[in-house]
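Question (not urgent): is this output format expected?
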Amino acid sequence: MKVITVKQPFASLIACGLKEYEFRTWKTKYRGEILIHAAKSVDKKAMERYKHLNLDYKVGCIIAKAVITDCVYIDDKMRNLLKTKDPLVYYGVLNDKDWKGYGFKIENVLKIDPIFISGQLGLWNYD
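Got this back:
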């Protein structure tokens, strides 16, 4: 199965269904089931921004199963849509107007018991 590694706190935001898009500078044609892997590294500023949510921020493990249903270019129209969804969750992409990239639409998220494993760059495979 395909896996994507995501820094904390963003991996937990996805696992809890709060974050519907994961952002990358590269696009993917892949659509289908995916596992969400929480990286060993964390975004310290973002951890502070989301600490009030009291989420479980495990690192170095797979924490959820989901489905990538789309990959969209992040333009001004998409930024406006994200702003209406949740300006706190999408803070980074909304406040960096120079950032160019894609949002992987993530749906049907299911938290799972952690599977501790090292992550990799890009989409990678886990049996």
